[in-house]
Design brief:
Elements lengths: L1 H5 L3 H10 L8 E6 L9 E8 L6 H5 L1 H14 L10 E6 L8 E6 L7 H22 L1 H55 L10 E2 L3 E9 L3 E8 L5 E7 L7 H16 L8 E6 L5 E6 L3 E3 H8 L4 H20 L2 E2 L8 E4 L4 E3 L6 E2 L20 H4 L6 H17 L9 H10 L5 H4 L7 H10 L11 H9 L22
Helix pairs in contact: 5-6, 6-12, 9-11, 9-15, 11-14
Length: 489
């Protein structure tokens, strides 16, 4: 995973192998020769040498199988970019009493401008000869120019699409490695001993901890009461490996700092952040009574437009407040929209948000978020902005109103690819059996445009579009017979 986060080309991958060889073996070391110039684009020369105290005759004889494994590893690196396996020439081997195993690795990336040159020359020749024979060489010369222009353009487009295809393959492998890393970390947390139970204790002399009201992969949420003021609060505590993970602690701090700045009735308030005696971080938030939009959808199916529109308008107001101070949520989904009992809606969990004026918690090109709701630019790790949230909100509204995600796929990697190129059906076409107003369909589909500039200008404009819809006569609930046709989310 770390290699794919830093390597931009296969050469970078081989350099990463050399720089981090000690993580794979303690009995030998890798070296890489700097070939310089154009050769470094598709060639790498590496050598593997045993440590002096490990270079015994027995160890050398046993290196033959290990050498075959090293050749396989070296050949596989270009596959991460969608290229064929590299050709590995093994010119010297430790098993044959050579001082080191020497490997020359060659791979075949797309040749720069080869498609443009071939298509330009080919089209110019075909057009020039064909027209020249029929209409004379003067007309043929013009045909050569036009043919070269059209052929060059076609070659440029072909090469651009080919380059984008390789970039998508690389991004899919990087996402797969991230998912596997998260899975392994989750398995480690599952094997770790459970943290001490906080229920019925007093935290820092201020908060009386009540029952556990929520639990996730990295934290536990407790109901609590402020002893001096008597009001109810919710306390989120990092647990397990997350309590020792600097990145998770940074996310929790980021969430608290951002939500303190976002003093808005449609955003859950954060009131305190502190550290426990064992080093665990906790954050104190307002206690909300109700349920998430995800919970309502899972139990009741599609949300009726009469109920959904006020909720959507509240979310627009929350996003407008966040975007107004340069905060992009980056993980808007039904689970992060809370439907309060008194009728309002609040946006939760700014832990993955990004301040557009500050450095991101993750490096450029590193994708984070929930794939089902990620905008095309977010899927490829490009720069996110306020309208990235509007795309995610469009997916949320589409799913809430129809009971189905606008774009679905067999796996997450395919899903990220489809979000960049597949245009979903309008809601009234997908669910003609539901009373979805045409104006609401237009508003939602405008959020799902692939190009950022074609989406609503900001959350305020989207709020105006939603507020202009006549809600009189729209149902606020459905009968039990209306259920989502796609239950898995």
């Amino acid at each position: 995973m770390r290699m794919l986060r830093t390597a931009k080309t296969p050469v970078d991958a081989y350099r990463f192998l050399v720089a981090n060889a000690s993580e794979q073996t303690r009995v030998g070391a890798w070296e890489m020769e700097d070939l310089g110039g154009r050769a470094m684009r598709n060639t790498a020369k590496l050598s593997y040498r045993l440590r002096e105290d490990e270079s015994t005759p027995e160890a050398r004889r046993g290196e033959r199988l290990l050498c075959a494994a090293r050749r396989g590893e070296l050949a596989s690196y270009p596959v991460f970019w969608g290229y064929p396996e590299a050709r590995v020439v093994h010119s010297a081997c430790i098993a044959d009493d050579a001082p080191a195993c020497v490997y020359e690795v060659r791979w075949n990336p797309p040749r720069a401008y080869s498609a443009i040159a071939v298509s330009t020359v080919g089209a110019a020749a075909v057009c020039g000869v064909s027209v020249g024979i029929a209409g004379g060489w003067a007309v043929g010369g013009l045909a050569v120019f036009l043919g070269a222009t059209l052929g060059g353009g076609a070659g440029f487009l072909w090469q651009r699409n080919n380059r984008l295809a390789h970039a998508r393959v690389y991004e899919q492998h990087r996402i797969a490695s991230l998912e596997r890393a998260l899975q392994l970390r989750g398995e480690g947390e599952a094997r770790a001993p459970a943290p001490g139970e906080l229920s019925a204790t007093v935290l820092h002399g201020k908060y009386r901890i009540g029952r556990k009201i929520g639990s996730g992969g990295i934290g536990v949420v407790y109901a609590a009461e402020h002893l001096s003021l008597g009001h109810e609060v919710a306390i989120k505590v990092l647990r397990g490996a997350a309590a020792m993970d600097g990145s998770e602690i940074a996310r929790l701090r980021r969430e608290a700092h951002i939500q303190v700045r976002l003093d808005h009735p449609n955003i859950a308030r954060v009131m305190d952040l502190d550290q426990m005696a064992d080093g665990s971080i906790y954050v104190v938030m307002e206690r909300l009574h109700g349920r998430s939009l995800a919970d309502k959808m899972s139990k009741e199916g599609p949300v009726a437009p009469g109920f959904a529109l006020p909720c959507f308008i509240d979310v627009c107001r929350a996003l407008a407040a966040a975007h107004g101070i340069g905060v992009v949520h980056r993980d808007l989904k039904p689970g992060n929209i809370f439907l309060c009992e008194e009728g309002s809606s609040k946006v939760l969990d700014f832990g993955m948000s990004k301040l557009t004026s500050a450095e991101s918690l993750t490096q450029a090109g590193y994708t984070l978020g929930t794939p089902e709701y990620m905008a095309p630019e977010q899927c490829i790790g490009a720069v996110v902005e306020a309208r990235t949230d509007l795309y995610a909100f469009g997916v949320v509204m589409y799913e809430a109103l129809t009971g189905e995600l606008p774009i679905n796929a067999a796996n997450r990697r395919e899903l990220l690819d489809l979000h960049q190129r597949q245009v979903p059906k309008p809601m009234r076409v997908r669910r003609p059996d539901l009373p979805i107003p045409a104006e609401l369909d237009v508003a939602v589909m405008s959020c799902l445009r692939k190009k950022v500039g074609e989406r609503p200008r900001d959350a305020g404009e989207l709020e105006q579009m939603l507020a202009s819809i006549d809600v009189s006569g729209l149902p606020t609930s459905y009968t039990q017979s209306v259920r989502p046709r796609l239950a898995a989310r």
